[in-house]
Amino acid sequence: MSNSYNGWTNYATWRVHLEMYDGQSPRDIMGRRPHDFYELADVLKEQTQEFMEMEGKGLVLDYALAFLSDVNWQEIAKHLMEAYAEEDEDEGVLEHAAWHDTSAELE
């Protein structure tokens, strides 16, 4: 049985992308172009966790952080960098970015 959701690794990945990062470019998020997918993925995870910690507390925060542990941050980062490259016709972003598909490793 597949846990994928709407073309994403899972529901958590889809939902975090939809609610937090849909329509944003890597520059919107970082203030500059990220060096690679991994850097952007780390920033996405850190920003999202910080947001949850500011907005939640107690059991609700615990559940939110548990939900975030299922997110494939590299998948969101890859999607954002690909969308950014398409919008700006800046394919060099993808050529120089380190990436490999980690979704198989998460299963």
Would you mind describing this structure in some detail?
- The chain is mostly helical.
- It has helices spanning 11-21, 26-30, 37-55, 58-68, 73-88, 92-95.
- The chain has one domain.
- The termini are close together.
- The model is unreliable at 98-107 (pLDDT under 50).
In short:
The protein is 62% helix and 0% strand. The protein has 107 residues and is mainly α.
State the order of secondary-structure elements, H for helix, E for strand: HHHHHH
Which percent range describes the beta-strand content? Answer: under 5%
| Alpha-carbon Rg, integer | 14 Å
Distance between the termini: 12 Å
Briefly note the structural class of the backbone.
Answer: mainly alpha
Number of domains: 1
Number of helices: 6
By DSSP, the count of extended strands is: 0
For the sheet with most strands, the description reads: none
In round numbers, the mean pLDDT is 85
Report low-confidence residues grouped into runs of 5 or more.
98-107
The proportion of residues forming helix, as a percent range, comes to 55-70%
Q: Which geometry do the CA atoms define?
A: globular
